[in-house]
Specification:
The protein is of the alpha+beta class and 76 residues long. 37% of the residues lie in helices and 22% in strands. It holds the Pfam family DUF2292.
Length: 76
């Protein structure tokens, strides 16, 4: 049977610190024998591109597909 997890104020603060300010990502809490033993934080960064850069990338992909002897075709 699973043991109830007991969190003291120190662990609550640690978890809160890891979650605060996280825009994209995850916080993984590892529990052994009903006790928190580890906190892993994975943060993702997302970078927006301008519409012009997106258009240039699509045009380059189409040019590369034509150069490959029409074996590859760009999907819009």
């Amino acid at each position: 049977m699973a043991k109830p997890i007991v969190l003291d104020q120190e662990w609550i603060e640690r978890i809160t610190t890891q979650v605060n300010g996280l825009e994209y990502g995850s916080v993984l809490i590892t529990v052994h024998d009903g006790r928190v033993v580890q906190i892993d934080r994975t943060e993702r960064k997302r970078f927006e591109t301008s519409a012009k850069q997106n258009q240039n990338a699509k045009e380059q992909a189409g040019t590369q597909a034509s150069a490959a002897g029409d074996k590859l075709k760009a999907i819009n």
